[in-house]
TrEMBL record:
It comes from Amycolatopsis acidicola. Residues 54-112 form the HTH gntR-type domain. InterPro entries: Tscrpt_reg_HTH_GntR, WH-like_DNA-bd_sf, WH_DNA-bd_sf. This is GntR family transcriptional regulator. GO terms for molecular function: DNA binding; DNA-binding transcription factor activity. Keywords: DNA-binding, Transcription, Transcription regulation. It holds the Pfam family GntR.
């Protein structure tokens, strides 16, 4: 009679390979830190272009300074810190997601790709 081991018991005995290990998570970015990196110069003065200006400023900061896997702050916190409308921040993040710069989840955080 052969004994069968459960998958869980087998997995406990096998060491994890480097490829199977999760990479160390990058600490989340606070809204204040991201606002400091973006700076006040992102506003062009045209109220109709706030989302586009913010998207271009965030694109530059993300590509130059943030490592892949960084968790961005919630949209509401970022909007309050940058002193702009939450809808403008959401539109800018949606634009970045379409360009493949960030990945967003419904009711979740936004991460840098």
């Amino acid at each position: 009679m052969t004994s069968t081991l459960s998958t869980r018991a087998v997995m406990r005995r096998l060491p994890m390979t480097r490829a199977a290990q999760k990479p160390s998570p990058v600490p989340p970015m606070s809204a204040a830190d991201l606002a400091d990196l973006v700076g006040p110069a992102w506003r062009s003065g045209d109220r109709r272009r706030v989302a586009a200006d913010l998207a271009s400023a965030l694109t530059e900061v993300i590509r130059l300074r943030l490592p892949s896997g960084t968790t961005l702050p919630p949209l509401r916190n970022l909007a309050v810190t940058l002193r702009c409308n939450r809808k403008a921040v959401a539109s800018a993040m949606h634009q970045l997601a379409e360009e493949g710069i960030v990945v967003t989840r419904a009711r979740g955080r936004t991460r840098v790709v």
